[in-house]
Amino acid sequence: MKYIVIGLGNFGSVLAERLTMMGHEVIGVDKDPHKVEDLKQAVAGTICLDSREPNALNALPLKDADTVFVTIGEDFGTSVHIIALLKQVKAKRIVGRAVSPLHKTVMEAIG
Prior knowledge:
By secondary structure, the chain is α/β, with parallel strands linked by helices. It has five helices and five strands; from the N terminus they run E-H-E-H-E-H-E-H-E-H. A five-stranded parallel sheet has the order 3-2-1-4-5, with helices on both faces. Strand 2, helix 2 and strand 3 (45-48) form a beta-alpha-beta unit. Helix 4 (76-88) packs parallel to helix 5. The longest helix is centred in the C-terminal third of the chain and has 13 residues, at 76-88. The two termini are 22 Å apart. The relative contact order is 0.19. The mean pLDDT is 92.
């Protein structure tokens, strides 16, 4: 299967590595070049871009991905923003990481 993991903090980087070890094709995405560089050896594809920008997000192979994981937990607004953009471009399946009950409620309201 093909996965995109947006947000390569602690959770996102471990998720990307584990999916890769299970034999899946994974693209890790983060706006921090250091996080992208740190994951380069463990994950086949890593991309440094700001996923809040619709044009940058469109550069990802979203139509080919079975699931897009949004693992940004600390920045509530960015997480919701990216999920909304992914809904607009009709990503097949979006899985978001909620870090509070309110965050979960907002993400569920988006769909």
